Amino acid sequence: MPKSPSLFDFHLLLHFTIFSLAAADAIAAARPITQQFKEAPQFYNSEICPKIVGEDDESDNGTSIFLCSDQSVHVAMTLDSAYIRGSMAAVLSILQHSSCPQNIVFHFVASATANASFLHATISSSFPYLNFQVYSFDDSSVSRLISTSIRSALDCPLNYARSYLADLLPSCVRRIVYLDSDLVLVDDIAKLAATQLGDNSVLAAPEHCNANFTSYFTPTFWSSPTLSLTFANRKPCYFNTGVMVIDLDRWRRGDYTKKIEEWMGIQKRTRIYELGSLPPFLLVFAGNIVAVNHRWNQHGLGGDNFKGLCRDLHPGPVSLLHWSGKGKPWVRLDANRPCPLDALWAPYDLLQTPFALDS
Fold first, then answer.
1. Which structural domain, as residue segments, surrounds residue 115?
2. Total domains in the fold of the chain
3. What residue stretch is flagged as signal peptide (predicted)?
4. Residues 6 or more apart from 43 whose CB is under 8 A from it?
5. Which pTM value belongs to this model?
6. Which of 140, 160, 274, 291 has most Cβ atoms within 10 angstroms of its Cβ?
């Protein structure tokens, strides 16, 4: 008669299972990307679009004048293997809804440890006519400053690349629209890019002044007279850093990368927040930004940072849908457990499925 498994046997099996899963995750992370993406249709400018003067020329240092033109709409995004499917969908949505798609320049930031040639080739194969550059981000420049947060995905050094755009992009690029990779636009990005920043503001983003701002920082922060005075004479409101219009010239002059790094250094010594790369931006900019209409960031569609449950749209018109939070639409679609709003992301998915038929 077979012997019943003992408690020791159960624990041994459990540890073996955990080890096997961890090993499988490590192998999967190291495995090269096998996703294949379809080629997107080519999009053309309308007659009203300005011609980029000297777009076929190069400046003295070899930089394309097209890439430096103030008449171009400059879009910055990060690019990595984990989110490349989302990035491809975002790019397609931007081009599809733009009146002047040929005047858009994409600035992709990839980790220095990533396979940059593969990422470049993947973008080129799906968007042969896209104006873009890929920049290498040295993870070590920020990894020493990163503190653990409530979700491991938020601790990726590439999440902090948005703080270094002024250094990474050519100095001739004076204004950019920064976008996360888990969103799609359903409106012309030129409208967002044209946001007026006034005389002094460095960035613009949709503000949410009804959010509980105190919750973004720990009691240690608020109990410190020195730290809490950071927001004196400011009306700080939450804003999501996944959609921002940034004046890079003003950023450079104000050395805002250093200001963000200083707060990250304080966080390393004294835990003053729990959420990744967002709080340093709030500490530096909250209360001093230009508010953009909420239609430009219908965020939170990925649910919270723990369960990623389905959510509904906020009231009002929509120009940009953002799956911030734990749940990503491509993951839920692949698992056959999509949320209703994931159907709005699916039309922009360029993944080549094995059973796809040629049209």
1. 63-348
2. 1
3. 1-24
4. 95, 96, 98, 101, 102
5. 0.85
6. 160
